[in-house]
Amino acid sequence: MLGKLTLSAIPYDVPILVGTFIGVAVIGIAVLAAVTYFKKWGYLWREWLTTVDHKKLAVMYVILGLVMLVRGFADAVMMRTQLALAYAGNPGYLPPHHYDQVFSAHGTIMIFFMAMVIMQALFNFVVPLQIGARDVAFPLINSISFYMTLVSAILINISLFVGEFSNVGWLGYPPVSELQFNPGVGVDYYIWSVQISGIGTLLTAVNFITTIVKLRAPGMKWMHMPVFTWTAFFSCIMILTTFPVLTVSMALLALDRYVGMHFFTNDGGGSVMLYLNLIWSWGHPEVYILILPAFGVFSEIAATFSGKPLFGYATMVIATGIITFLGSIVWVHHFFTMGAGADVNTFFGIMTMFIAVPTGVKIFNWLFTMYKGRVRFEGPMNWIVGFMITFSIGGMTGVMMAMPAADWVIHNSLFLVAHFHNVIIGGVFFGYVAGLSYWFPKVFGFKMRDVWGKWAFRFWFVGFYVSFMPLYVVGLEGMTRRMNHYDNPNWHPWLLVACVGVFILAAGVACQVIQFVLAAFDAVNKKPDALDLTGDNWGSGRTLEWSLPSPVPHYNFARLPVVRGLDTFHIEKELGRPAPLAELEPIHMPKYSAVGPVLGACALVIGFALVWHIWWAVIAGLVVSFFTVVHRSANLDIDFYVPVEEIRADEEAFAKRLAAAQAAE
Amino acid sequence: MKRLWRFFPALPALMLSGCTVDLLQPAGPIGEGNRDMMVLEWAVMMCVVVPVIIATLIFAWKYRASNEKAEYLRNWSHSNKIEVFIWGVPILIILVLSGFNYWSTHYYDPYKPISKEMLAKVGAPNAKPLRVEVVSLDWKWLFIYPDLGIATINELDVPTKTPLDFRITSDSVMTSFFIPQLGSQIYSMAGMETQLHLLASRPGNYQGEAAQYTGPGFSDMRFRTIAMPQEQFEAWVQSVHNTENPFVAKEALDAQTYPKYQAPPAVSNEVAPKPAPVLYFSNVQSGLFESIVAKYNVGNNAHGKDSKPMGDMPMDTHSDSQMAAPSNTGM
């Protein structure tokens, strides 16, 4: 009846997990009780859970991403404390069985369920507003994307309390991930979480490519698109070309594990080399999928806070395109140590080095955006300066690893770990956090307290160096990654320093949490100076989203904007807004739908049932999904028109707020 | 270029303590090559990174909004001169590094025997190579010396100033064979043979490790690499034949006894598996390495030559139906 699932799968004898479970249960019950007490279930279902509005989906993505950031960060704290303790005969507090799951979960969560999720939040919120669209091309599919991401994150967290998670790292290298060496359900949780979230990501890419190609406002030529939209576009192209490879690799691994095939096994003609090539021909583009939108965020922020247009817009777009291309043909640099011939290694090494060219160009572009500007160091701008310093160092160590003759000794070492945290924290994470604080007032209509953002930045900046510079050193001392304990006296002091660093980072996370809590507090109390009345919160917004009221009405644009060039809103502020050409018309919008949550629930059941071999539940999930889709296809009541009166009322209210804001100045 | 590494102590690592930074203080020409490449790239890249960081800080300070005196070009966003500079400089640097990349990848290719040049440099122009066959197991290392007929577990004894020709395979999961102070690492993969050529130029006791995660016993999957002068090495080989030596196994390593040593230790969820103790074998069946490679290829050696499959070799101790698939993989 329940497949492989028995009571013994519940790890009630592991105190850390029981404690975590109690914590999660208490918080969960408190939230559910609060929703019930305030009678908000109906509101939650009608306005949020069934929404197809890209802005509300973005908010839900952010919440998911931040919750998973805390989860992934807790894993990081456990790893660093374990390695600070587990020296010279002390086994530490995490035996390999547990520790190996912790580092696997940390990587999987931070990439798939933190970075990818916050990236999709930014796509969702910003892209349609920047190009003057009223929603994405396929709003319902957007909702389905979100639910696929959500349930795969839930699935990975279920593995904490039911069974176990994968113990073989975030990429699940065979043969150690094969059934022969890994008979538990951990790897299965990994496979199905990644597969389900992959569906969501792929649908997001399809959606946003279509949106950007088809739904740009009248007059917006390709070279009028804001840089963030460009980077989102290239990032989606990479998703579209590489995520299917991930899906196939996972499917083949699943076939090995579930029906005894031999794609990646030691014997029967399987080859681990095949898996490495497949997974990295997704895995390397993946890091560019993540970093390109961060580059986009930096480009927007640098221009806004320097009071100047972005330096070298065309160069920026070209450089992004070159990175997209080069990023797809460098995957072999992840295994120069596999024994490939010198010519193959040289080709991939040199291609990798050449990525430093367009990336370096971008750094110079931001530098010259600040040059002869009036740079205002409000919260978001801090992260850029921190990024440019940190990312330059990370890029340098990246080029070092691109030379096979050097990589042969630093491959898989903590030098590598330090390098990719250097670019992922210093690039992706700094970028996304800067983006969140930059667009936060646009999303909610009120501001966050900048001072907490600045403190968060300071702790993250210093904490990063204290945590990861020591890892470069132990990497040079020959320490390989994923060790659980060690007895090398040279390593110990550095790992103690790194452990201190993780607590400095924790202070940064705490500041961010406080910043959000205080912002919510200010909003509830309607603190007057926290309100964003004009919609152009930073006073120097250049792109279309800043022309809209904050928060943005559900139909985004009362009248579709007419685009006259790059940085449309800036042009309008300079030359004056053209008088509206047409009268207001009713706006055609999609209705909210329960299809997303229903399909999500089915995917969760299917994923969980696949992990535990509960076949009847898999079939039931598939059948319900199928009929949900059929029912939706036959449903003609899926849209409505926003009446002109409502739009006019919104416009007048905004005009009044603008006038009041101007009078106050 | 060879002198560049002297500047590297700028890293706090060396300033803080007199301890060994394995990759910066290598004990052989391959390791020195790895280090020189690393330091060279570091030095070249610093020529860009340092100015960029300084410029970032200067621009951020000079053009801060409160500095009304600084020039403000509110619509300036293009300059051909700057564009040429920002594309030109990185391309130039990468072109230079690409040249080094091509040269070093070929010169230090792990598959290439230690060159005459390197041998001359360590003062042993005519040294004959020592062949060592390496098998990674759960969670230990087996080293077979085919020319000497001996083998060891978790300890690699080698003569200095002698080229070391490693042939590497795995009889378990994939991992990476790595002795940081000697230089380059190479993966070990079941059913396949990879190669690595190293040389220890001075005596020492170096850490050796599995540099790719292998399962619960991964952290203890380590070995000491003891490099000693030729005479001492010969004496050590003699000691392996001495039955009084407590490290020497009482039996030969052959098809019958191999599974016992290959078997993984007991695994529990609460503690790490016990590390395997050092063990010497004074007698090893010839062709053992080839048969370990062959058993994943339905009896055929991966190379098609030197094939000495042992008919009575047990297939695998891990699981059932290992040999289901029909024929050679062609690898």
Low-confidence stretches of chain B: 7-11, 13-17, 302-331
Report the C-alpha radius of gyration of chain B, rounded: 26 Å
- The gross shape of chain B turns out to be elongated
Question: What overall geometry of chain A do the principal axes of the alpha carbons give?
Answer: globular
Biggest sheet features of chain A: 2 strands, antiparallel
Tell me what portion of residues of chain A adopts beta-strand conformation.
Answer: under 5%
N-to-C SSE string of chain A, H for helix and E for strand: HHHHHHHHHHHHHHHHEHHEH
List the strand order in the largest sheet of chain B. Answer: 8-5-1-2-3-11
What would the average pLDDT of chain A be, to the nearest integer?
94
Keywords:
heterodimer; A: 665 residues; mainly alpha; two-stranded antiparallel sheet; 19 helices; B: 331 residues; alpha+beta; 6-stranded mixed beta sheet; 5-stranded mixed beta sheet; 7 helices; 11 strands; disordered C terminus; transmembrane (chain A)
Question: Concise description?
Answer:
The complex is a heterodimer of chains A (665) and B (331). Chain A is mostly helical and 665 residues long.
Description of the structure:
The complex is a heterodimer of chains A (665) and B (331). Chain A has helices at 15-37, 41-49, 54-85, 96-130, 139-161, 186-214, 227-259, 272-306, 313-327, 342-370, 379-402, 404-410, 414-444, 450-476, 492-524, 568-575, 595-612, 615-634, 644-664, and strands spanning 587-590, 639-642. Chain A is an all-alpha fold. The termini of chain A are far apart. With 331 residues, chain B is an alpha+beta fold. Helices cover 29% and strands 20% of the residues of chain B. Chain B contains seven helices and eleven strands. Chain B has a six-stranded mixed sheet with strand order 8-5-1-2-3-11. A five-stranded mixed sheet of chain B has the order 4-10-9-6-7. In chain B, strand 6 (175-179) and strand 7 (183-188) form a beta hairpin. In chain B, helix 2 (29-62) packs antiparallel against helix 3 (80-107). Chain B is elongated. In chain B, 45% of the residues are buried. Mean pLDDT of chain B is 87; it is low at 7-11, 13-17 and 302-331. The chains are: A mainly alpha (665), B alpha+beta (331). Chains A and B meet through helix 4, helix 8, helix 10, helix 11 and helix 12 of A and helix 1, helix 2, helix 3, strand 7 and strand 9 of B. Chain A: InterPro entries: Cyt_c_oxase-like_su1_dom (IPR023616), Cyt_c_oxase-like_su1_sf (IPR036927), Cyt_C_Oxase_1 (IPR000883), Cyt_c_ubiqinol_oxidase_su1 (IPR014207). Chain A: Belongs to the heme-copper respiratory oxidase family. Chain A: This is Cytochrome o ubiquinol oxidase subunit I. Chain A: Residues 39-564 form the Cytochrome oxidase subunit I profile domain.
